[in-house]
Design goal:
Layout: E1 3-10, E2 16-21, H1 24-32, E3 45-53, H2 56-67, H3 69-77
Antiparallel strand pairs: 1-2, 1-3
Length: about 80
């Protein structure tokens, strides 16, 4: 099963959220509808980055990279 690492950016505030999922469309809708406690105050969002990984382990490694200082800097420039 493939997993997707994704980054969403708040349209109204300076906030980027990075996560991983097996269904990025469903997860993105969940964030925008306010179903996720962590991101609810920052909705609405735009999808700024996706990366498909072959398994959960590699997806988790990539998620950790994007959550690092270097990764976040790159995402802020997108």
């Amino acid at each position: 099963m493939n997993f997707t690492v994704y980054a969403i950016s708040s349209i109204n505030r300076k906030y980027i959220y990075i996560g991983l999922t097996s269904n990025v469309e469903k997860r993105f809708l969940s964030h925008n509808r306010g179903y996720e406690r962590t991101t609810k105050p920052y909705a609405p969002f735009k999808l700024v980055y996706t990366e498909v990984c072959p398994d959960r382990i590699s997806a988790r490694k990539r998620e950790k990279y994007w959550k690092s200082g270097v990764g976040r800097e790159i995402l802020r420039k997108l």
